[in-house]
């Protein structure tokens, strides 16, 4: 069971602002899903099994470090909610911590 | 006019090449059908006139519909999400570029579950897509718009993406063909990411020949995606009409418990047809397959929680108004921009990766992924392909599973093992149950697409399914 405090902690990590309703629902729904997921504990000791992060054997892809054409700044900024002076404008981070 | 639109894409392309069909007729006809859109399958339809098409191009000017999450330059690409409201990418995905270059112009963008998270296309900022076989039911998902568009005859073919079943399951529920290629066969460049180690693009088509034609045009190594891999040889159009010497394995873990009786009956009847075509059909074991869903619902959300961290209201899409400060702008933008299922998966993934839980959840899931790959490797010692029902049920009613995430996730039961192993799988329609289509899945070793398409082609001929409800409607 995922407690309300755990839900709030994870939401903070994920930069999600959940409403009261959502916190409650999330706690119930995630607990139910985790109950199912936790059946992988039944597989016991997996110390000798290597993890798979990528399924196909691929070599690291290297290329010469040479300048190539890239998106012009104004194109990259065109989709921004608020572009200004060649950059992305954002709200102030707020007062510095004491 | 309607005559040309009832052709398969390969047949239409052949007619164009032979000079018997004007590609403008296909463009205008499909554009009119897509614009009518009875199933909310489309999020955008081109309003351009027919372009000049090179009649000798491999895809012959037959237009294609593309899932919303493929970046298309200057054309809305929101991955079904409010958080990408108004986003028109400055570039086009490699897969789409290749199709255009091969002679398939962009007809429309198709609806999907938000960020490809879902099995019903109900989690979309554009509203749900409905199933052309029965508009009170879901088309499956997440690529439900692409599946419904092809099943409704509003597009000759379409592309989508499959992370845990999002091509195969909607293809099954809509009575058409859907191919999830080997991981890496098609470039992911320009696909708005869900789970990067699993996402793979592939075709939705009226038959297996069309699937081979479209897949061949989109596949190949791409310098913009370092995880893309060149295929061992060209994709060939399937010719095979028998299954002599083909060994099919039926994993008992994926073909019994949890599968609807009508779906099982169609599956069993298809196995009989396979035997008549000369195949041997024997039980096989994928002992860790029952744990695939758990591993998948840890790995995919974990990757998603990382991939979706980029949506913060700074560079593109939606930004919430009235924030107190920068952090509040991030959290409010994400609260208002993401739908319920996306938030659920971000939470699940963040939890699985968080300090104190990483080893028990994400780390363990990656090990289970290894065990599942090994199960398939063992199966390939005795079998050419593994076959299962594609989905445990036929299309379900709209709203039936939206309040029960776990019930929704169980739709992917038969498709996630292949996704975790990175191997190709194809769903072909095998018949009807309660008047609704049933899908039959064949999966093979990595890069076995040519053999897989050949076997699917032979079975398709024997089944003789008519994948066009609109023709009789």
Fill in the keyword field for this structure.
heterodimer, A: 98 residues, mainly alpha, Histone, subunit A, two-stranded antiparallel ribbon, 2 strands, 34% helix, B: 473 residues, alpha/beta, Amidase signature (AS) enzymes, 11-stranded mixed beta sheet, 16 helices, 11 strands, 36% helix, 13% strand
The oligomerization state is heterodimer
CATH class of the domain at 1-42 in chain A: Mainly Alpha
Distance between the termini of chain B: 17 Å
- Largest interface, counted by CB within 8 Å of the partner chain's CB: A-B, 55 and 72 residues
Unreliable spans of chain B are none
Rg from alpha-carbon coordinates of chain B: 21 Å
Q: Label the structural class of chain B.
A: alpha/beta
**What can be said about the biggest beta sheet of chain B?**
11 strands, mixed
- Beta fraction of the residues of chain A? under 5%
Shape of chain A: flat
Task: Look at the helices and sheets of chain A and give the structural class.
Answer: mainly alpha
Count of DSSP-assigned helices of chain B: 16
What does this structure look like?
- The complex is a heterodimer of chains A (98) and B (473).
- The longest helix of chain A has 18 residues, at 20-37.
- Chain A has helices at residues 4-13, 20-37, 73-77, and strands spanning 83-84, 87-88.
- Chain A is built from three helices and two strands.
- In chain A, helix 1 (4-13) packs across helix 2 (20-37).
- In chain A, strands 1-2 form a two-stranded antiparallel sheet.
- Chain A is mostly helical and 98 residues long.
- Chain A has a domain at 1-42: Glu-tRNAGln amidotransferase C subunit, N-terminal domain (Histone, subunit A), CATH 1.10.20.60.
- With 473 residues, chain B is of the alpha/beta class.
- Chain B has a domain at 2-243 and 447-472: Amidase signature (AS) enzymes, CATH 3.90.1300.10.
- In chain B, 36% of the residues lie in helices and 13% in strands.
- In chain B, helix 7 packs antiparallel against helix 15 (449-463).
- Chain B is globular, with a radius of gyration of 21 Å.
- The model of chain B has no long low-confidence stretch (mean pLDDT 96).
- The interface between A and B is large, with 55 and 72 residues.
């Amino acid at each position: 069971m995922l407690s309300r405090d755990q839900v709030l902690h994870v939401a903070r990590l994920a930069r999600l602002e959940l409403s009261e309703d959502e916190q409650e629902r999330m706690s119930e729904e995630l607990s139910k899903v985790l109950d199912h997921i936790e059946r992988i504990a039944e597989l016991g000791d997996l110390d000798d099994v290597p993890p798979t992060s990528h399924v196909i054997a691929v070599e690291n892809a290297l290329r010469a470090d040479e300048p190539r054409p890239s998106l012009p700044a104004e194109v990259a900024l065109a989709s921004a909610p608020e572009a200004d002076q060649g950059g992305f404008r954002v709200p102030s981070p707020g007062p510095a911590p004491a | 006019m309607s005559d040309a639109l009832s052709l398969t894409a390969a047949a239409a392309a052949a007619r164009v090449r032979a000079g018997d069909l004007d590609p403008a007729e296909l463009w205008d006809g499909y554009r009119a059908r897509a614009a009518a859109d009875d199933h909310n399958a489309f999020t955008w339809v081109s309003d351009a006139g027919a372009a000049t098409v090179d009649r000798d191009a491999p895809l012959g000017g037959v237009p294609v519909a593309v899932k919303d999450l493929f970046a298309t330059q200057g054309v809305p690409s929101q991955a079904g999400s409010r958080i990408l409201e108004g986003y028109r990418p400055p570039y086009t995905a490699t897969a789409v570029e290749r199709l255009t270059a091969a002679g398939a112009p962009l007809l429309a963008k198709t609806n999907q579950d938000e960020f490809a998270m879902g099995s019903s296309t109900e989690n979309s900022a554009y509203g749900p897509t409905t199933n052309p076989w029965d508009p009170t039911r879901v088309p499956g998902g997440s690529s439900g718009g692409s599946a419904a568009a092809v099943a409704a005859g509003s597009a000759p073919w379409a592309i989508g993406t499959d992370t845990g079943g999002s091509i195969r399951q909607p293809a099954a529920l809509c009575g058409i063909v859907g191919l999830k290629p080997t991981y890496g066969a098609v470039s992911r460049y320009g696909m708005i990411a869900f789970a990067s180690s699993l996402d793979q693009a592939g075709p939705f088509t009226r038959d297996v020949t069309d699937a081979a034609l479209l897949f061949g045009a989109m596949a190949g190594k791409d310098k913009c995606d370092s995880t893309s891999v060149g295929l061992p040889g060209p994709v060939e159009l399937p010719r095979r009409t028998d299954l002599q010497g083909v060994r099919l394995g039926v994993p008992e873990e994926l073909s019994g418990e949890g599968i609807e009786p009508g779906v099982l009956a169609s599956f069993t009847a298809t196995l009989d047809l396979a035997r008549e075509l000369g195949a041997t059909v024997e039980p096989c074991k994928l002992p860790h397959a029952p744990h695939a869903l758990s591993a998948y619902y840890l790995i995919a959300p974990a990757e998603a929680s990382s991939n979706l961290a980029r949506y913060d209201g700074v560079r593109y899409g939606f930004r919430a108004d009235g924030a107190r400060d920068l952090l509040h702008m991030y959290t409010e933008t994400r609260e208002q921009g993401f739908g319920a299922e996306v938030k659920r998966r971000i939470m699940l993934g963040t939890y699985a990766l968080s300090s104190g839980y990483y080893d028990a959840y994400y780390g363990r899931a990656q090990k289970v992924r290894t065990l599942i790959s090994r199960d398939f490797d063992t199966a390939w010692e005795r079998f050419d392909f593994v076959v299962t029902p594609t989905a445990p049920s036929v299309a379900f009613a709209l709203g039936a599973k939206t309040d029960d995430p776990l019930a929704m996730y169980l739709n992917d039961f038969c498709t996630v093992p292949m996704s975790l192993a990175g191997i190709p799988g194809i769903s072909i329609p095998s018949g009807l149950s309660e008047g609704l289509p049933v899908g039959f899945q064949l999966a093979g070793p990595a890069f076995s697409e040519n053999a897989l398409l050949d076997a699917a082609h032979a079975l398709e001929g024997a089944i003789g399914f008519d994948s066009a409800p609109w023709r009789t409607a």
